[in-house]
Amino acid sequence: MPSQVKNFSEYKFQRILDHNQHLREQLDLPRVRVSQASSVIIKYVQSTKDYLVPSVWGPAGPADPFITKN
């Protein structure tokens, strides 16, 4: 019985070490501020035409990639 308790304790300790290592790896990841990410998204949305919203961008014309070609 004490052997099982020791094995279980070692298992729990190993899981804690693995989790700690995973957290350290996440800590090293580069971060982007929310304001910066938001401004990049806003610039992309404002500069990229969405042909599925003609009320905003107007008719697509011949460059419409969604038109069916016969």
TrEMBL record:
GO terms for biological process: G protein-coupled receptor signaling pathway; pheromone-dependent signal transduction involved in conjugation with cellular fusion. GO terms for molecular function: G-protein beta-subunit binding. Keywords: Lipoprotein, Membrane, Methylation, Palmitate, Prenylation, Transducer. The keyword Membrane applies. Its main location: membrane. Pfam families: G-gamma (PF00631). It is found in: Membrane. One of its GO terms (cellular component) is heterotrimeric G-protein complex. The keyword tRNA processing does not apply. InterPro entries: G-protein_gamma-like_dom, GGL_sf, Ste18_fungal. Residues 9-68 form the G protein gamma domain. It is a peripheral membrane protein. Belongs to the G protein gamma family. G proteins are composed of 3 units, alpha, beta and gamma. This is Guanine nucleotide-binding protein subunit gamma. It comes from Funneliformis geosporum.
